[in-house]
Structure formats: C-alpha cells, structure tokens
Amino acid sequence: MDANDGGGDGIRAQPRGTAPTALSVLDLVTVGSGRTATDALRTSVALAKLAESRGYHRHWVAEHHSMPGVASSSPAVILAHLAAHTTRIRLGSGGVMLPNHAPLVIAEQFGTLEALAPGRVDLGLGRAPGTDGATAAALRRTDRLGEGADDFPQQLAELTRFLDDDFPDGHPYARIHAVPGPVQATSPGGVQSPHRPPIWLLGSSGFSARLAGVLGLPFAFAHHFSAQNTLPALDLYRESFRPSAVLDAPYALIGVSALATDAEEEARRQVRAAALNMIRLRTGRPGLVPTPDEAAAHRFTEAERDFVTSWNSNVIHGTADQVRAGLDDLAKRTGADELMLTANAHSGEVRLRSYELVANAYALPQAP
After folding, report:
1. What local confidence, expressed as pLDDT, does residue 3 receive?
2. How many Å apart are CA 48 and CA 76, to the nearest integer?
3. What pLDDT, in 10s, does the model give residues 51-64?
4. Distances (CA, A) of 230 to 170, 227, 254
C-alpha cells in the first residue's frame, strides 16, 4: 500500500476490498483497568502494524490531557514511535489542539515527523483544548481560554506560513524558519524533501467545517461524539468549499465509534464498559477504562442508563456483519469520503480483534 495511494496530494484515498469508502484508524491509546500506559502504547504499535498490513489508509492519534484512561497527551512523540515501526501507512494527528501550542513548535514537530516518514504524515488540527478548562489554562499559561479559540484562524495562518516558510518581507517572523523545513533547500548545497504534511481541520460543530471549506482544506468531523451535528457540519463544509491549491473538491472523513467482536453479546458488554468510562469522565471522575465485568456489576442510576442508551446508539457494534452493515449505512447517509474507526474497549486484544474483523468483513487486502 503506497502512502499516497488514491491521490498525489496525500489526502484523497480510494476504497479497498468491498468497503464503501476508504477505512482508517483513530487511536485514542486507551488504558484499561489493570493495564499500564506502556501496555497501551504497545497496543498502538501492534494496531499500526495491523492497519498497515490490512489495507487501512491512515492511523491517527489524538491529543488529550489529564485523562488517566487516555495515554495520548503527546501525539508527535507517539507518531515518531509509530513511524519507526511502519513503512507505508499514513500517520497523523486527529488532532493536535492548536491553541495549546505555539505554531512554530507544531511546525518544527511535524517537520521532524515528515523527515522521519517522508510523504506519509498528516497534520490534523483542532481548536478545542482536549481537556477541562483548568488543564487547558495550565497548558496555555493563561486563564483567557476563549482567546485561543477565537484566534484559531490567525494561528492557523501563522502555522501554515511556518510550514511553507513564506512570511512576507517585513513580517516580524520573516527571518524565523521552522527546521526541518523548506529553508534547508535554500541553504548552500541544500536539498529539501518535496513533501509537506497536509493540514486537516477537525471539528464537532460548524466553525471548523466552514473554515475548512473556505480555505479549501480537507475536513474531519467527530461523529463519534457529536453525531447530531454530523450532517449539518458536512453540508456546511461542502456548501462553503472553495477550490484551493490543496484540493479541487471537498474531501471529508468522519470519526466513527465501531467495535466488532466474534459474538454480539460480547460487543454489548464491551461498549457498556466504554459508556461507563464516559459517564465517569463527564461527571468529573476520569479514570482507567473499566472492565466489562466491572460495568456489569455497576449499579447504574436511571440517568446513567439513559446516557448509556443514548451514547451507545451512536456506537456501531456487534458481529463483523452487523458492524459492516452499520458502516455501509453511515457512509450512505453522510456521503463521507472516508470512515476513520475508533474501537473503544478495555483491552488491547479486543481492539485489535475488532479491526481485524472489520478488515475481513470487507475483504481488505492483506499485505504479503
């Protein structure tokens, strides 16, 4: 599988096997009860290798903070590790939360990743903090959090100029260069990679959808936790789209919670545990992902039962055939160009098995 299969821009991907769209992986590097962050990161390596060998197009990791059950606080570090264990699959951030970082730092990190894995790095950007307000304040060294989100277009423009090394003459940053980057090609004897990580905008509402459309950038929507906004956001993106040097037509992927198991009842047990983890997170009690047995023993309140029902209604789960049917329907309803699957479960073994079952269900090609 070539890193840029389906499009020389490194963005567009073609379906494989019998899948309705290209399929990719969103890895939250989850840590289950009784497991360590080391265990979770080893699972991520195993997942990246499996995804590469089974025809998934890309593998993204997301930035989260102050969540014991999610070990992905440093996407660039994890992606460098995954790059060392893979050779073809695209790797990227789903995403880096731009207001948490100086644009120059991100340009340097992803320029380094591009040098490590030429032609297969994606830079997905979000404007949410990826955590609670207090943690965001600690990350940003300010309690004026609204300014970061409001300044997102300006931060994005600055980051883009660092990546392209094209600040105009007279700009305060005109003599500052992100290295590795294009400036190396202008140095005596310099030779620079022709690749630059493509920028994706991520969102769970209409703001980033519109901005991605206006700028002609690819768009990734968080259907897995904002399903009610999926169709309006995709419509807004497509309506707002203006062709650019990056894309001549809209390209949208959606993140999808999907868990396939060998038995339907086991899938229900697994997603119930994942829902309990989400209840704890949203009530200010974040922790490790509980086991299915722990969830089975938990006495859910009426409000918690309602939440589980609502939350799991947007998780495509069951046997491989059931998950395939759900993904087919979602692709048809949304018209998404790519489905990025996140399998939330207590154990790494269950997560790996899910991606394998989906690959088999769609007859994705297996690398020799």
Report:
1. 44
2. 15
3. 999 999 999 999 99
4. 42, 5, 8
pLDDT of the residue at 102: 93
- Tell me which amino acid residue 70 is: V
What are the structure tokens assigned to 163, written together?
């990546």
- In this structure, the dihedral spanned by the alpha carbons of residues 281, 287, 289 and 292, taken in order and rounded to 10 degrees, is -90
Q: Is the separation of the CB atoms in 91 and 120 below 8 Å?
A: yes
Classified as helix, coil or strand, 213 is helix
Q: How far apart are CA 223 and CA 228, in angstroms?
A: 8
Reduce the DSSP state of residue 122 to 3 states and report it: strand
Least Cα distance to 180 among 87, 88, 116, 122 occurs for 116
Q: What is the pLDDT of residue 149?
A: 56
Alpha-carbon separation of residue 111 from 118, 126, 197, 217, 282 (angstroms)? 10, 18, 8, 19, 35
Residue with tokens 């590097």: 29
Contact criterion met (CB below 8 Å) for 127 and 99: yes
Angle (deg, nearest 10), helices 264-282 and 302-312: 120
Tell me the average pLDDT across 169-173. Answer: 95
Question: 59 pairs with which residues across the strands?
Answer: 25, 91
The Cα 85–Cα 349 span in angstroms is: 19
Q: Which residues contact 21 (CB under 8 A, 6 or more apart)?
A: 15, 331, 336, 337, 338, 339
Structure token pair of residue 263: 């038995």
